[in-house]
Amino acid sequence: MKFLDQCKIYVKSGDGGRGSMSFRREKFIEFGGPDGGDGGKGGAIVLVAQDNLNTLIDYRYQQHFRAPNGRGGAGRNRTGAGGDDLVLRVPVGTQILGEDGETLIADFTRKGQRACCCAAAMAVSATPITKARPTRRRAVPISAGRARRRGCGCGSS
Question: Distance between CA 20 and CA 151 in Å, rounded?
């Protein structure tokens, strides 16, 4: 059995989902306005201490970890789904150091202890924050000759 007591891993939290640019369009709603939903929140990297592990051999061959991204928003103010958190299991007694090798990020001293290594990225909102302006509509009279050619609907054309 190989024993590995020090390793270097690269982690990245998930990106937030894309917002949706959508406008409400219905038959009897005159000024619909924007109704796009926000994107979902990205996933975070969470480290958990477990007592049944005694080595970091799992991180020797896979050093890059990336949490899933959030889903995009949709019309009708529907917010996208958030990305799941990526859980990395480490043995009790592990110390997480920063890239410089001196900054202590987390110290796992007991079973079940959790630390968030990379916070999740927030979602993006693509809905414009503008007020709908009314448009002027001119009433255009239909001439009697045009109505006669189309038929008035009474059966006598």
Answer: 45
**pLDDT of 151 higher than 50:** no
User: CB under 8 Å to 28, separation ≥6 — which residues?
Assistant: none
Q: Where are the domains of the chain?
A: 1-129
Q: Provide the pLDDT for residue 102.
A: 87
Beta strand pairing call for 114-118 and 86-91? unpaired
Quote the CA–CA distance of 65 and 17 in Å, as a whole number: 19
Query: What CATH code would you report for 1-129?
Result: 2.70.210.12
pLDDT band at 89 (very low <50, low <70, confident <90, very high): very high
State how far the Cα of 87 lies from the Cα of 65, in Å rounded to an integer.
Answer: 10
pLDDT of res. 142: 43
Distance between CA 17 and CA 28 in Å, rounded? 32
